[in-house]
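Support request from a user on the community tier.

User writes: "When I paste my structure tokens into the form, the page sometimes reloads and wipes my input. The last time it worked, I copied everything first. Here is what I submitted, just in case something in the input itself triggers the reload:"
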């Protein structure tokens, strides 16, 4: 996707964009960084203002507000969306609350940014997409936060595919490997409970790579064949982990993991290109290893998140005597997003994807156009995740994805 041009006008000429954020942990901190920094780096048509942050624990949310620069706090998200000093609601909570908050915020006339995956079920995602479509007619925009689209190297890869540098696509292979669950004594957090997280590695990591693969390929998956596994099925209860758990008494020490630990699936694009995906939180020694490679008739592209300022390109039209993969250092000012950052050769990091996310959403709001990825895009990813689960449960060869 070609990035919008920066606005030449001063920020003071238009009203600020006042943000209210629900959630303050890992993603809350990352999103805070994005909102706080975007207007200091890019010339934006509206200046983001960190108006209010919300969380159930009053003391913890006050600490987060002081650390990240939020002006006010709330302990009830309903109070946040009713505030007159909030134009946009940023949802950084577990997946079980995404639909309720997003639908209410859109109905209240707010723009919405929602973390991925969009919801815990296809039905919830459909409700959110319908609400977003209705709200668009009233001027409210909704976007889902697939931040890896905003790495300059992946944005460059998308541009190169769109320009035809790979020709007809043949293969896409993607892995997202982590190891934070290898220890069987790691406690039963919300991410390991289906009623809160929706799924395990599939939604946590698989949603990212499904979206990125489809975005870079420029087409949506048509069907999947999948396997999933839960390697450790009982884990120690974390403090407070008995909340909402049936059959757990005060003395209960263990709880049941109700999500997948790993997902492995193959897929097909409508064009005939084949794809393979692996998402796991049990790849010992791998911390955040997202890798994607696209092979086409005229060339190939490869990206590794652990070397996120680099994109590798093979031009198959060159003579074989000196052809091969070459490294593109994605730090030039004519690369996506980079005209506002540092001199060539000075790399960016993970946190900058959230700055770019905020930038793109502010531009979309100011221009009144649908942001990407939209809630409709998030719904489509949710349908892929559901097809993976269905295929794994049935151990079927091929499960079509509904339109």
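"...and here is what came back when it finally went through:"
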């Amino acid at each position: 996707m070609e990035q919008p041009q920066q606005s030449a006008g001063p920020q003071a000429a238009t009203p600020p964009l006042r943000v209210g954020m629900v959630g303050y942990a890992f993603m809350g901190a990352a999103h805070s960084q994005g909102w706080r920094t975007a207007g200091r780096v890019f010339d934006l048509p509206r200046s983001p203002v960190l108006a209010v942050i919300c969380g159930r624990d009053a003391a913890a949310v006050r600490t987060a507000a002081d650390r990240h620069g939020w002006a006010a706090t709330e302990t009830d998200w309903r109070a946040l969306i009713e505030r007159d000093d909030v134009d946009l609601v940023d949802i950084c909570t577990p997946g079980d609350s995404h639909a309720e908050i997003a639908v209410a915020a859109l109905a209240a006339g707010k723009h919405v940014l929602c973390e991925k995956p969009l919801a815990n079920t296809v039905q919830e995602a459909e409700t959110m997409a319908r609400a977003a479509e209705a709200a668009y007619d009233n001027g409210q925009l909704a976007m889902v936060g697939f931040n890896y689209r905003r790495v300059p190297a992946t944005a460059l890869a998308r541009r190169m595919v769109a320009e035809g540098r790979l020709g007809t696509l043949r293969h896409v292979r993607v892995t997202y490997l982590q190891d934070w669950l290898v220890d069987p004594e790691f406690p039963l957090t919300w991410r390991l409970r289906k009623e809160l997280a929706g799924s395990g590695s599939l939604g946590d990591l698989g949603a990212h790579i499904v979206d990125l693969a489809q975005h870079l390929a420029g087409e949506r998956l048509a069907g999947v064949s999948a396997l999933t596994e839960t390697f450790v099925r009982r884990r120690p209860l974390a403090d407070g982990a008995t909340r909402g758990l049936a059959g757990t008494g005060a003395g209960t020490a263990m709880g049941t993991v109700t999500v997948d630990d790993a997902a492995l699936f193959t897929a097909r694009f409508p064009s005939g290109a084949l794809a393979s995906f692996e998402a796991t939180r049990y790849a010992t020694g791998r911390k955040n290893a997202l890798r994607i490679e696209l092979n086409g008739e005229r060339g190939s592209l490869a990206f590794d998140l652990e070397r996120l300022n680099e994109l590798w390109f093979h031009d198959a039209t060159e003579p074989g005597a000196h052809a091969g993969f070459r490294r593109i250092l994605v730090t030039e000012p004519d690369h996506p997003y980079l005209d506002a950052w540092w001199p060539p050769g000075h790399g960016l990091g993970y946190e900058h994807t959230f700055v770019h996310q905020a930038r793109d959403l502010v531009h979309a709001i100011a221009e009144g156009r649908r942001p990407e990825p939209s809630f409709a895009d998030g719904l489509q990813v949710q349908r892929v995740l559901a097809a993976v689960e269905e295929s794994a449960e049935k151990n079927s060869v091929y499960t079509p994805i509904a339109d």
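Agent notes: The reload is a front-end session timeout and is unrelated to the input. The first strand starts at residue 17 and ends at 22. Residues 1-12, 246-250 have pLDDT under 50 and may be disordered. Escalated to web team.
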